[in-house]
Amino acid sequence: MHLQSVRDGPARAAGSAGRLLAAAGAGSGLAALVAAWACCLLPIGLGTRGAGASIVVALDGLVPWRWPLLGVSVVVVALGWLAHLRERAAARAAGYACTNGGRRLTPLLLGLATVPMALAAGWDALQPVVLGWLEPVAS
């Protein structure tokens, strides 16, 4: 059930902002994850599949961007969570007990945006394990 009124406009706009920030955070988190993988995992994986040296050299250019991309991702996702929590607080203060499905999508997107961020941030610890799994493939 969804309660809608004239006052629903600002809450809907805040939900849209949260979803937009979640999507931007997921994109920058994925970019940071690719930059983290660019030093070792992607060249090995692509090399075993016949990729040329030019692809490996291009990937090497992403490595310095890992931490700046991760920083942007953290800020954007944190802003997304803030917008979502403010929207929920405003809805509760206005007496809305029910929300629409779109407002349930925002925390899901924000939660999914944290996965590539966590992988990119912890990649230095995860890399030896993943490369150990790939050794039989590369041999």
Tally of DSSP β-strands: 0
- State the end-to-end CA separation: 58 Å
Total discrete domains: 1
Could you tell me the strand content as a percent range?
under 5%
Catalogue the unreliable spans: 1-8
Task: Describe this protein's structure.
The structure is a single chain. This protein has 139 residues and is mostly helical. The chain has one domain. Helix content is 80%, strand content 0%. It is built from 6 helices and no strands. It has helices at residues 8-37, 41-48, 53-60, 66-93, 101-121, 123-138. The longest helix is centred in the N-terminal third of the chain and has 30 residues, at 8-37. The protein is elongated, with a radius of gyration of 20 Å. It starts with 7 loop residues before the first helix and ends with a helix. The chain crosses the membrane at residues 20-45, 65-84, 105-123. This is Mercury transporter MerT. It comes from Chelatococcus albus. Keywords: Membrane, Transmembrane, Transmembrane helix.
Could you write a compact summary of the structure shown?
With 139 residues, the protein is mostly helical. The protein has helices spanning 8-37, 41-48, 53-60, 66-93, 101-121, 123-138. It has one domain (11-138).
Secondary structure layout:
Layout: H1 8-37, H2 41-48, H3 53-60, H4 66-93, H5 101-121, H6 123-138
Helix pairs in contact: 1-4, 1-5, 2-3, 2-6, 4-5
